[in-house]
Amino acid sequence: LARKIHIKYLDLYSGALFIQESLGWNIYLSVILLIGMTALLTVTGGLVAVIYTDTVQALLMIIGAFTLMIISITEVGGFEELKRRYMLAKPNVTSILLTYNLSNTNSCHVDPKPDSLRMLREPTDEDIPWPGFLLGQTPASVWYWCADQVIVQRVLAAKNIAHAKGSTLMAGFLKLLPMFLIVVPGMISRILFPEDIACINPEHCMQVCGSRAGCSNIAYPRLVMRLVPVGLRGLMMAVMIAALMSDLDSIFNSASTIFTLDIYKLLIRKGASSRELMIVGRVFVAFMVVISIAWVPIIVEMQGGQMYLYIQEVADYLTPPVAAIFLMGVFWKRCNEQGAFFGGMVGFGLGAIRLILAFIYRVPECNQPDTRPLFIKSVHYMYFATGLFWITGIVAVIVSFLTPPPSKEQIRMTTFCTSVGNSLTVQEKTILKYSETSNPVSSNGKSEENVKKGDDQNRKFLDWVCGFRSKGMNDRTIPEKGEDETVCLQMLEETPKVKLLLNCGLICVCSLGIFMFVYFSL
Question: Structural domain tally of the chain?
Fold first, then answer.
């Protein structure tokens, strides 16, 4: 939950930064506008509205980003010319000093690095060391794509397991596009506006973009506002706002779900009704809105001029323990609740300590002495994530062996070895076969909740805002145990043809990903 809220703050800041760059508005006014639109969508619509709007927004994002990529590549003369001109994209220091009336001639990172065109770099690189990326960044990616609430919530909303796998594969293919839709335009922005994007010292950076650490964050919006024709700027602005709202409404919805079901219902009000849980979820969204506005100044100070790297750094301090426990739970039947708990707590504690120390001992400005402790200065956050991942796993293994193993019923259909195809009993297969030729579920069960008629207008309005439908609630029923199991078995069943198609898609997307890593790292 803490990780989700933190990412929400970063999304708000990036969205406000784009609005500020394009419209010249105050950053707090931009934040309030973004929060207001997103909160209205999330509170009144819930998960269904989030999924439908995300679908439309994804289409807008892809079309708009492709348009900008084509325009920008055409502007620099093609991909090969891009690579040549990027290495020559150096700001005119003399002109900058005269224009901005600066007396400080010290320059910081003016020239592009020799390995700028390589994705995976030397083991000692300060940005992307290849051993740290493969061993440390991978756990963070496993956490996000396999265990993060935003992603898992969408997968669980799928019609069946085949739809869930298919949507995951589609997301994998789309994930190949940011290299061309985001990275390439960012490089072109450096080529076209080196005096702005490659600011020469903290004073210059502060005057250009309001951050002493650097102006990389304004590369994309600066490219949109300076390169795209007037008619297309509205589309590109809609694309950027859609991307940010898509991320924000997902985080609002998932964080609200976590708080409502995992905290409020389990620890505060175990007997809470559906109506009460709905209202609590919406109120929690409003609470996050207030906190978000107050947190923006902290994000402005902490993100250090390169927001994406800052996001990855925070993720590598907090998420490897989750990835370790997730993988052990999937692939190792002996892992139990005690092992997962203590392994996760040890890993999270170490990560939280490192994160706090990173906040206290900040990276110094360029040309300033680095007085940070050796543990902070010399150990890259990706290498730290690697150690955190293995420490969590080792603690979980030790504790699991020292405590009783989980029962067979507890791990049935929950691990790779006990997956659906290997663990269905003869009785379950018979039920599944019978259900394919008959109605799987009949509507007989206990009434969930009765709603009184004659509610006043205020209560009806509250029901509408919270997404709670009073009409017809008497007809809603809770399926009995046997019916529920039948539905679950149907959802987990895959035909051989569908399974073959999904496996072929998996091989294709993995092969393309590996090829891109190798090609852009040589």
Answer: 2
Domain of 51, CATH number, reads 1.20.1730.10
- Residue 452 has phi, psi (to 5 degrees) of -70, 145
Asked if residue 324 is part of any domain, the answer here is no
| Residue 291 included in any domain | yes
Burial annotation 253-275 (CB, 10 A radius, 16+ → b, else e): bbbbbbbbeeebbeeeeeebeeb
Domain membership of residue 220 (yes or no) is: yes
What is the rounded end-to-end Cα distance, in angstroms, of the chain? 39
Whole-prediction pTM: 0.79
Contacts of 444 (CB under 8 A, 6+ apart): 477, 480
Residue with tokens 């335009």: 185
**Contact (Cβ atoms closer than 8 angstroms) between residue 479 and residue 441:** yes
Determine the structural domain holding residue 451 and report its residue range.
413-519
Residues 6+ apart with CB under 8 A from 390: 324
Residue 345 covered by a domain: no
Q: Domain boundary at 305, 322, 344, which?
A: 305
Q: For position 380, what pLDDT does the model report?
A: 92
**Predicted confidence (pLDDT) per residue in 66-92, tens digit:** 989 999 999 999 999 999 999 999 888
Alpha carbons 2 and 255: distance in angstroms, whole number: 9
pLDDT in tens, 142-159: 988 888 877 887 888 888
Report d(CA 219, CA 189) in Å as an integer: 6
